[in-house]
Structure formats: C-alpha cells, structure tokens
UniProtKB/TrEMBL annotation, chains A, B:
ATP binds at residues 123-124, 148, 215. Residues 152-301 form the PurM-like C-terminal domain. Belongs to the thiamine-monophosphate kinase family. This is Thiamine-monophosphate kinase. It comes from Pseudomonas cuatrocienegasensis. Mg(2+) 2 binds at residues 49, 77. It catalyses: thiamine phosphate + ATP = thiamine diphosphate + ADP.
Length: 323, 323
C-alpha cells in the first residue's frame, strides 16, 4: 500500500479532532505532542506511538533493545516540545506469554525509563499479534512549549549532535552487513538506544523559536518546520556534523544518511543568533547547520553556495513503509 | 492459553512500575486509572485500553458501533474515578486504508466523544492487524479520586442502573440468536453504546467511599472492591435491578447475566447510608443492591437470607478469553 493512504487517514483523524483552541486543548494533532491545559499555569504534553512487529521492528528483535528503543522514540517527542518528563503508559499486545522475552523487554524499558526520568504509570496487556503502544506525558509551564511553528527569517538552524548514525546502522540491524568493529557497535547503539534530548529540549524553552525531533530525516523534518513556520530553511552541506563512525560505515552514503536518514531522534531547532553563544557556553551540544531564510521549503547548498541535490531517494525505515 | 498467564504479565509490569507515592505519581497500576500529580491542586487521571480484532471484537463488527464502544469503554474508567473528562488519544493499527470503514468508525468515535465531552487530541496510525489503543485523560481536584479502596463496614453497596443487559446481548452480538424485537434492540444498544457514567462519577466525589465500573461482572468487580477495601460485600438477590428487556431476552439466565455478566460499564460503589437520600433526591439513578460487612469476599443472599450460588460458571466476554 502506498504511504499516501495512511497519510490520508492521519489527515482524516486530524480533521475529526478538535481544533486547536478548543476549551482545554492548547494544541491538537499535528505537532510532536498534543498539549492539554491544566490548572496552575501548567500544560500537559502527550504523545502516542505504536510499533508493530514486521512493520516497525523485525520479529527477531532483541527484546531488551526493543524495550529501550520503544520508550526512547516516544520520549523524544517530549524532548521536542521542551516538556519535563512525567510518566508513560504501555499497551502491549502479545501472541503468547514468553517469560524470558518479557523479562528482557521490561528490563530494556526500565533502563530507558530511568535514563529519561519517566515512570510506568499504567497500561493494558492483551493477546494478539505483537505490537506496542506507548503514551508519554510531560509537563510544561503554560505557553512555553516548543512547536514547529515560530522560526523567523535570520534564525540559525541547529541540531543536537552528529546526524545519520541510526540510518547507517540500518544495514547492520537488518543483517545485510556484518556488524564488526567499534564503529558498527557505536552505530547500532544509536539505533537501538536513541537518547531523547530531554534536557536540551527544556534548556531551549524560551530560546528556540521552533523545534522537533528528527525521526524521518533532517530534510523531511526541516520541511515540517519550514511549512509550519512559513519560512525557507537553508542547510549548508559543509556544516553537517558527520561522525567518524558514520563516514567509516556508510562511505559514499554518509551524506545521504545525514540528510535523509531517519531514526536519529536528535533535536532540530531554530535559534535567534544571540541565543547561540550562551547555550554553547553552558555546554549544550549544539551544531549550527544552516539558517532560516525568506521563502519556503528546504534547500541544501554546497561550500560554493551551489544547490546540492541528493542523488538518491529518501530514507527507508525498517520494513516496507513507515506506517 | 490460560487467562492466568496474562494475569502474571500484568503483575510483572505492575511490579516493574513505580510504587504509589513516587514523586509525581499519586496512584500507579491497579485501579481504573493512574493518577499523576499536577500543579495547582489538580491530578490527572489516565487510562489505556487496547481492543484487538478477533479477541475483543469480531472482524465483521460494524465500524460505527465499534468506534462508539471503544471510546465508551475507555471513558468509563474516568467515570469510575470521578474524573472530569478532558481528552483522548487514539492509536489505530489497520491492515489497509478502507475509506468507508474509517469514515464510519470515526463517526462512531465522534459521536461517543461528543456524548462524553472528550476531545481527540492526538494519536498514531500504523499498518498491521486491526487493533485500537485508546488513552483517556481526565482531571480531578487533588485527593478526591474514587478508588477501589475505602469501603467501610455499614456502607451501602450501590450500582448506577439495571444490570446484565450487555451480557444478555452477547448471543445477539455473536449471531447465535436472531435479534428480533424491541428488547433485543435495547440490549444491543447497551452492548454497542455503553454510556459511561461520567456525571454520576463526579457527583459521587467526596460521597462514595469506593467505586469502579462494572466490566467483568458485578460479582467479580465487587470482589475487587472487597479486596482493596478489606471488607466483605453482601449482595441481596431481591434488590438486583433487572430490566424487562433482560428478563424477556435472557429468561432463566437473567440472574447470571446480572451477577456475572460483564460489559455493563455502570458504576458500582459504596456509600455511607446518610449519603443516599440526597443523591437520589437529586435524581441520580442509584440502586442499592447490598452492603459492606465485616469479613472478606462477596456473598449473594436470597430473600430468606440464605446464600445463593450461581449454578453456572463465570461470564465469557466476546472471544476465547478476556485478554
């Protein structure tokens, strides 16, 4: 089935959902989290993600790593809004009760929960084909959420670390390439244990003008910021942070991984120039990769200022499509 | 697979989850909702439920009715805590994008959302075997949630309406009996459009000493209150509210439906005797069916005060087991 049909479903439910501004709802479907109004000048950030076996992860996935990754990916949506982590629910559907599998899965989940400061507060266990739905909760002072809208012409386009590593790990995850050596190990860790940038997200409150987490690739996700903010974004090729591990493993595909590779779960955000130095001096791992310009869409330019076009289609996540 | 294995999984995750009293968590796994502490003397009630095709509903289920029922069942957990409805997320996994099915499902969902005062605030759409995970949110003044613990000896045991109608509808739902006549129609409506008693739940705040919603049958659910509250509960057979539709449709099985039939999604709660009259005078549909006594467990007595034992095993929900 083409990806487009599921995109249509999403739009269908988005249209059916309440409009932003409805009583009690500060932000509905369409950003990294929804925001609910609470008493006491507080908002609740909520995000739900489902992972289905054979679509989002292979059946033979290591259950410990799967537990880590499932929660890491969901928690990243809280980071993208600048929310302080609160808790999560887990709805798990299993074909059978395999004690070893569950024990390892729960350890992976616990491990990521401790790293993120999130607590398992509830859930449901049902029988059926393996799938996981995690709903994460965070809190925010009212009006301080980082959304995709708000980037201004002249802002710096920044990311929270080296790009493309999770994409470079995909051939290793799928067993298409043998995972030998220290670089392979580093990349696999990035894929299976994404580290949501929750602290960075909170540090960016009141400073960044727009933000999201990179799940579909820098180009695609910057497209969301550009559209929501009604600006253009220019990415400078020479400033893309590429790790040694990425260059060694991906070789000629390193740039494709960095620009179009998903699953990094680093933050991408826009920052007024004056905000950069204090954040970097405070030790935040911020890399400037471009800027917001008048216009629309996302453009990549090389060191001569000439447009750069990927020779190669977009990134494929695990499985036949991203749905 | 025996039901017990999934019960073990639930216990496993409950043990892995934070203890009640952990910072920010007022109530963890084990009641109808988890409670998160918020600023401003407010708590957030959260509940997650998954429905899997072939386990919780038949593949040929009418999508409009399925949408209604899925949200109604989840919202009932908010009613059971006395929470004011806020919003919900929907994670839907679908094998294919069928526009007619989706349109009808979303209409059913919208219809129940409007009846409950809940807003769709976010979600996820993924490809795979049909399943639905709904997470519902409500708000509560701090410390006013109705939990399963708190019933006192001498309290009245009450329910929010006529019992057993959804169970009596099950043979109609499964096509085992032809659905003819006005009674069949009424029962099917109770099954497919459970009406969560959200207003009653809020009216019981500060009055009821324990509460839950009847999902597994009066006997089984009263067992949860008895255990959590460390009291016994005595149910008086002659006071069970049985509708004409139930008597007509279920015949000799009417009592079994009322005592052991699940899926009613009415509230069951304990009330100090002095609280009853003002609530009934205010028009709340409260039926007294027994009382809390010293001891443990749930006992049913007939009009002579003799113990009554169901001749018949527990209630079966749709499908091979309740998981």
């Amino acid at each position: 089935m083409p990806l487009g049909e599921f995109e249509l479903i999403r739009r269908y439910f988005a249209a059916a959902s309440c409009a932003q501004g409805a009583a009690g709802v500060a932000l509905g479907i369409g950003d990294d989290c929804a925001l609910l109004e609470l008493a006491g000048d507080e908002q609740l950030a909520v995000s739900t993600d489902t992972l289905v076996v054979g679509v989002h992860f292979p059946e033979q996935a290591d259950p410990f790593l799967l537990g880590q990754r499932a929660l890491g990916v969901s928690a990243s949506d809280l980071a993208a809004m600048g929310a302080a982590p609160l808790g999560f629910t887990l709805a798990i559907t299993l074909p059978a009760a395999d004690a070893d599998w569950l024990e390892a899965f729960a350890r992976g989940l616990d491990c990521m929960a401790a790293r993120c400061g999130l607590r398992l507060i509830g859930g449901d266990t049902t029988r059926g084909p393996l799938s996981l739905t995690l709903t994460v909760f965070g809190r925010l002072p009212r009006g301080q959420a980082l959304t995709r809208a708000g980037a201004q012409v002249g802002d710096l386009l920044c990311v929270g670390g080296a790009l493309g590593e999770a994409a470079a790990a995909l051939p290793l995850v799928l067993g298409q390439v043998a995972a030998d050596g220290v670089h392979a190990e580093a990349l696999l860790a990035r894929y299976w244990s994404p580290m949501p940038q929750l602290d960075l997200g909170q540090a960016l409150r009141g400073r960044a003008t727009a933000a999201l987490d990179i799940s579909d690739g820098l180009l695609a996700d910057c497209g969301h910021i550009a559209q929501a903010s009604a600006v253009g974004l220019r990415i400078e090729l020479e400033h893309l942070p590429l790790s040694v591990a990425l260059r060694e493993q991906a070789g000629a595909k390193a740039l494709t991984c960095a620009l179009a590779g998903g699953d990094d779960y680093l933050l991408a955000f826009t920052l007024p120039p004056a905000e950069l130095a204090p954040l970097q001096q405070a030790g935040w791992p911020i890399q400037v990769v471009g800027q917001a310009v008048a216009g629309s869409g996302v453009q990549v330019i090389d060191c001569n200022g000439a447009p750069f076009v990927l020779s190669h289609g977009g990134y494929q996540h695990f499985g036949p499509s991203r749905d």
